[in-house]
Amino acid sequence: MKVLEVAGVSAAPGTKVRGSTQYVELADGSPVSLPLLLINGASDGPRMYLGAAIHGDEVDGVAILFRALAEVDPATLAGSIVCVPVQHPLALYADHRIPVSQYMKSPLDQAPLDAWTVFPGNDKGNLAQLLAAKLFGMITECDYAIDIHTPTRGGRYVPIAILPHPDLGEPRKRAREMADAFGSGWIMDTDTSFYVSDGILCAEATRAGVPAFTFEIGEGGRLEDAVVDEGARCVLNALRWLKMIPGPMRPPEKTYVMREFLEIRAEKGGLLLNRAELGDVVTKGQVLAQVFNIYGDEVQTVTAPADGVFVRTTTLSTVSTGERVATLGLL
Ligand SMILES: [Zn+2]
Q: I need a surface site. Which of 29, 236, 313, 330 has the fewest CB within 10 A?
């Protein structure tokens, strides 16, 4: 094995190194740096990119990575791991999906705003584009990539691997195989939805020849031990599948492979009461939630428009017209 060099940080074979790499400077001259954890194995193998918190309130992903990678011994690792546990530090400081202070200062200059959607980025662009370009430079030096998310605050997902668009050839097929091995129990293999759009991190990584998917789990703004354990199990499965680390795969009891998301939105404003459990297999017409106005009248009974799996729920207790109340995965 050779020395692993990533964005100015290096790790000798058989070592685990923490470092950082600057990508922008704030008005007072303070540098903003991406934290890095490099694990360089003692023997040859693939290079895996692992990233979390490109949205700043998605803290479960950060913990999933530190819990999983605590299990990785560089002495027995085949290949290497490039981990960026916080892919958007400014958003993490804001404890928000986006870097709110930057956005408040200048909404126009901050558009496009969401770094996750502007890959491969632009090193002459705005903050989101600069960040995407910096991350993309590291991702494309790797052989595989997994980008960990939670929904933003007020939403909760089953643990679900969401693949990029199926048109992306051989690397996309390999991404599906990795999602199967990852074993979260829910896979979205679709050609529609925002998640398969051009510009999304995993779509552009896969297009560039690095098989990748988005992993959603848990809830924004909450750190939950069971969620972290579950995510760490899956990350370790991917590393075992690639024969990077020893040990048996730990597959889920059952896997749902879904072909489409079906979003259900509030037609009325009010208080939201969920009536189905996240992960339930539901049938057309089944009651998922109720919306009550502030006087207690039921103003909307949210029912399943089709048979499916209840993959994303709303945990906020109020909704306005047009807000998401539930998402089904269609089998
Ligand atoms: Zn996210």
A: 29
269 CA distance to ligand 1 centroid (A)? 25
Taking the centre of ligand 1 as the mean of its atom positions, its distance from the CA of residue 292, in whole angstroms, is: 29
Ligand 1: distance of its center to the CA of 12 in Å?
32
What CATH number corresponds to the domain at position 165?
3.40.630.10
Are residue 165 and residue 296 in the same domain, yes or no?
Answer: no
What is the total count of domains within the chain? 2
Residue ranges of the alpha helices (H) in the chain? 59-70, 89-94, 100-105, 127-139, 169-182, 201-207, 225-241
What is the SS3 assignment for 56?
coil
pLDDT in tens, 58-104: 999 999 999 999 999 999 999 999 999 999 999 999 999 999 989 99
Q: Which of these three, 187, 210, 241, is where a domain ends?
A: 241
How many angstroms is it from 116 CA to the middle of ligand 1?
Answer: 8
Tell me, in angstroms, the distance from the centre of ligand 1 to residue 128's CA: 14
DSSP letter for each residue of 148-207: EE-PPTTEEEEEEEE---GGGHHHHHHHHHHHHHH--SEEE--S-SGGGSTTSHHHHHHH
Note the pLDDT tens digit of each residue in 19-57: 999 999 999 999 999 999 999 999 999 999 999 999 999
What spacing in Å lies between the alpha carbon of 220 and ligand 1's midpoint?
A: 8
pTM, full prediction: 0.97
Q: What pLDDT does residue 293 have?
A: 97
Same domain, 111 and 202: yes
> 216 and 143: one domain?
yes
How many angstroms separate the alpha carbon of residue 51 from the centre of ligand 1?
11
Domain that holds residue 273: 259-330
Q: How far apart are CA 157 and CA 198, in angstroms?
A: 23
Do residues 217 and 323 share a domain?
no
Cα(2) to ligand 1 centroid in Å equals 34
Q: What is the CA(229)–ligand 1 centre distance, in A? A: 19
